[in-house]
Amino acid sequence: MAEILVIAAHPQLDHSHATRALMAAAARAASGADPARIAVRDLYALYPDYFIDTAAEQALLAEARLLVWLHPVHWYSMPPLLKLWLDEVFAYGWAYGQGGRALAGKDLWLAASTGGPEASYRPDGYNRYFFDAFLHPYEQTAALVGMRWLPPLVLHGAHRTDAEELAAHAEVFAQRLLSWPDWPELADLDTVEPCDVPADARPQD
């Protein structure tokens, strides 16, 4: 069981520019690290039929200390299989709600890429908002389950990134994996307590 779990999701990995490069960098980091340190899981290779093995995923998460979501941004959010994974794995009573403390105290890190350039994520750009505005659902997901939300690593305009820039970005990703949790900025992050979800806030099965 790895202490760093990289969950990668790209529906068309063969056509990927950034996600594939970062997955390869993570795999190289894993091969050079303690075998129990890093695991990389390609959701679309594991679950092409979209049938998630929830028990297996929860078992891996229970042992991990850092969860990494690696994906391209699709319609200002995550790809569909990763959303299904989230829906099924972060279950009520396990990840949050009454008795749901399995993820409390762990870290959550997003490594994402966008098609649009950084300048498009501005009030005067065609995406209308700064990119951080699209991260609130991610941050609240972390808060709900008591995970610490780490500053994300984002590559904008991934399709236009040249080979040298992409290689440098992938190297940063790998080095961040290898150096976690010794990131200087983490000392300034607050510990998060899980949000209290009353038992009567959800319909009973």
Number of domains: 1
The CATH superfamily appears as Flavodoxin domain
Q: What string, H for helix and E for strand, traces the elements in order?
A: EHEHHEHEHEEH
Could you list the spans in which at least 5 consecutive residues all have pLDDT below 50?
Answer: none
Largest sheet: 6 strands, parallel
Roughly how many Å is the radius of gyration? Answer: 17 Å
CATH architecture: 3-Layer(aba) Sandwich
As a percent range, the share of helical residues equals 25-40%
Distance between the termini: 32 Å
**Secondary structural class:** alpha/beta
Q: CATH class, please?
A: Alpha Beta
CATH topology: Rossmann fold
* Molecular shape: globular
* Number of helical segments with 4 or more residues: 6
Question: β content, as a range?
Answer: 5-15%
- What is the mean predicted local confidence, pLDDT? 92
Number of strands: 6
